[in-house]
């Protein structure tokens, strides 16, 4: 679920934000994904595997947003 939020944030950032402000919005997207991850995992109430689930969610969001940043950078070169 968090990865999907990261994809949506990346697409909206690419479509709606000026190129010079995209890095700021990618950073804000990562912050939002992190907060959403913590809220989602705490709401489940499961102790077992908490760190693993949070790590997977945050690493996935970082990977998606890093890929988006790479695409934004390549588009800036063209």
Nutshell version of this structure?
85% of the residues lie in helices and 0% in strands. By secondary structure, it is mostly helical.
How would you describe the overall organization of this protein?
- The protein is mostly helical.
- It has 3 helices and no strands.
- It has helices at 2-16, 22-44, 50-77.
- The longest helix has 28 residues, at 50-77.
- It is elongated and about 50 Å long.
Provide mean pLDDT, rounded: 94
Gross geometry: elongated
Compute the CA-based radius of gyration.
Answer: 14 Å
Order of helices and strands: HHH
Q: Into which percent range does the helicity of residues fall?
A: over 70%
Unreliable stretches (pLDDT < 50, length at least 5) are none
Report on the biggest sheet.
none
Tell me the total number of β-strands: 0
Structural class: mainly alpha
Please, how many helices?
Answer: 3
Descriptive key words:
mainly alpha
What's the arrangement of secondary structure elements?
Elements: H1 2-16, H2 22-44, H3 50-77
Helix pairs in contact: 1-2, 1-3, 2-3
């Amino acid at each position: 679920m968090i990865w999907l939020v990261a994809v949506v944030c990346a697409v909206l950032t690419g479509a709606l934000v000026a190129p010079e402000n995209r890095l700021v919005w990618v950073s804000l997207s990562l912050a939002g994904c992190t907060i959403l991850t913590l809220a989602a995992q705490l709401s489940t109430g499961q102790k077992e595997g908490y760190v693993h689930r949070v790590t997977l969610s945050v690493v996935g969001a970082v990977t998606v947003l890093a890929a988006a940043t790479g695409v934004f950078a390549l588009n800036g070169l063209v």
